[in-house]
Amino acid sequence: MSMELEKCKIVWQNAALYFSVFQEVISSIIAGPINAVYFRKNFKILNIGKLHFEVESLVRNCFILHVLNWFGKVYLGGILNNELHYLTGNKYKNKKFDKVIFAIGSCENHGEHLPFGTDTFVSHILAQKVAMQVDGLLVLPPINIGYSGHYADFAFSLSLKSETLIAVIKDMIESVISNGISKIFVMNGHDGNIAPIEIATREMKVKYPEVKIATLDAWWVAVGKLIPRGTFEAWNGLGHAGEGETSMALQLFEELVQMEYAKGVVPDNLVDHIDIKWLFNELTNCGVTGDPTKATKEKGCLMEEALLKLLVDFFKKMDANNWNYSSTVTLS
Ligand SMILES: [Zn+2]
Predict the structure, then answer these.
(1) What is the reported pTM?
(2) CATH 3.40.50.10310 residue ranges in the chain?
(3) What is the distance between the alpha carbons of residues 163 and 150, in angstroms, rounded to a whole number?
(4) 240 Cα to the center of ligand 1, angstroms
(5) Which segments of the chain belong to CATH 3.30.70?
(6) Which residues keep their CB under 5 angstroms from ion ligand 1?
(7) Which of 43, 153, 200, 272 is deepest in the core (most CB within 10 A)?
C-alpha cells in the first residue's frame, strides 16, 4: 500500500472545555483511519485559548470526515447539551430553557477559497459558543439558505425568495412561541438576510408584544468597531469572503479553507454612506470583495473573542434584568 503521509493541523477552541472528553476523542481517532496522533510541544490544556495537535493521516479526506463525525458526536452532542438537534425528548424535558438563539446563513459562492456554507457556519458556531456560556439558552437548527439573489452570477448559489425567507423566519418564531419560549435571538450570517430578518422580526414583535426579540444583523460590521483599530489592513476587513470573513473562517473552520486560492477585489468606486443596490458581478469578477490574502487566524481569534463577549454580555445583562429593557426615566 502506498503510504503517502499528509500532515493536517487541527486547532480546537476552548481547550479546557474539551478536556473532559479528550480521551474519547483520541481513542475515537485512533480507532478510525488515523495511524498516529501526537501533540505539539506547546500544547496548553489549561489555556483558555487553543489546543493544538497535529495528525498524520493516510487519507486526509477520511480524516476530515472522521473529525466531522466525532466533532458532531463530542462537540455538539457531548458538550453542547443545549442544541435542539442533538437532544432527545427526555433530555429536553429535563433541561430548563427559557430562551433560544438561531442562525440564519446562506449557501452561496464564497470565492475559490471559502466553503459555500461559510455564512451558516460562522453564525451557527458563534451561536453554539454563546450557548456554552449562557444558562438556559437553546440553540435551534440554523436556516441554511438565505436570500442570495444578488450573488447568483457566481455558481453555485442557492437562494430563497425574500418573501419565502420572511415567512420561514416568522414560522420559526411562531413555533418557538408556541413551545412556551418568549426570548428569541436571531444571529444573522449574511448581508442578503438583513432586510428579511428586519421585516419578519418587526412584524412578529408587533403581533406578539410580550415576546422579546433581539438580532445581531451584521457581525462583520459590528466586529470592526469592537476590535483594536488597525487590526484590519484592507477595507476595514469588509467584503464578501474578504479579510474579515476569511479570518473568521480560519479561526472557526480552518480545515475547510483553501488559502492558496484566496484573491479579491476591493471596490474603489463606491460612495460612503450611500447604499448602491449592486449585483455582485458589478463589483468583482472573482466572487470576492475585500482582500482575503490579508486574513489570518490571529485576526479571526480577536474577532471571535470580541463577538462572543458582545453576545454573552448581552444575554447576561438581559437575564439580570429579566429582559426588561424599558427606559427607567419617565418625564412628567
Ligand atoms: Zn459570507
Answers:
(1) 0.79
(2) 81-320
(3) 15
(4) 5
(5) 1-79
(6) 118-119
(7) 200
Q: What does the longest C-alpha to C-alpha distance in the chain come to?
A: 85
What separation in Å is there between the alpha carbon of 250 and the centre of ligand 1?
13
Kindly state the cell numbers that stand for 203: 412584524
CA 191 / ligand 1 centre spacing (Å): 8
Cell 472528553 sits on residue: 21
Please say whether the dihedral angle defined by the alpha carbons of residues 176, 179, 182 and 184, taken in this order, is positive or negative: negative
Query: Residue 300 C-alpha to ligand 1 middle, in angstroms?
Result: 14
Ligand 1 centre and the CA of 120: distance in Å? 8
CATH architecture, domain 1-79: 2-Layer Sandwich (3.30)
What would the CATH number be for the domain defined by 81-320? 3.40.50.10310
Ligand 1 center–CA 260 separation, angstroms: 18
> What distance in Å separates the CA atoms of residue 95 and residue 136, rounded to the nearest whole number?
8
- Dist. CA 85–CA 83, nearest whole Å: 6
Using the mean position of ligand 1's atoms as its centre, give its distance from the Cα of residue 159 in Å: 13
Tell me the pLDDT of the chain (332 aa) as tens digits.
Answer: 333 333 333 444 444 344 444 545 555 554 444 434 433 333 333 322 333 333 333 334 344 444 544 444 444 444 457 889 888 899 899 999 999 999 999 999 999 999 999 999 999 999 988 998 899 999 999 999 999 999 999 999 999 999 999 999 999 999 999 999 999 999 999 999 999 999 999 999 999 999 999 999 999 999 999 999 999 999 989 999 999 999 999 998 888 899 999 999 999 999 989 999 999 999 999 999 999 999 999 999 999 999 999 999 999 999 999 999 999 998 98
Distance 158 CA to ligand 1 centre (A): 13
> What separation in Å is there between the alpha carbon of 288 and the centre of ligand 1?
10
* Ligand 1 midpoint to CA 35 (Å): 36
> How far away, in angstroms, is 247 Cα from ligand 1 center?
12
Q: From ligand 1's centre to the CA of 149, what distance in Å?
A: 14
* Closest by Cα among 187, 177, 89, 180 to 141: 187
User: Residue 174's closest CA among 145, 204, 198, 216?
Assistant: 204
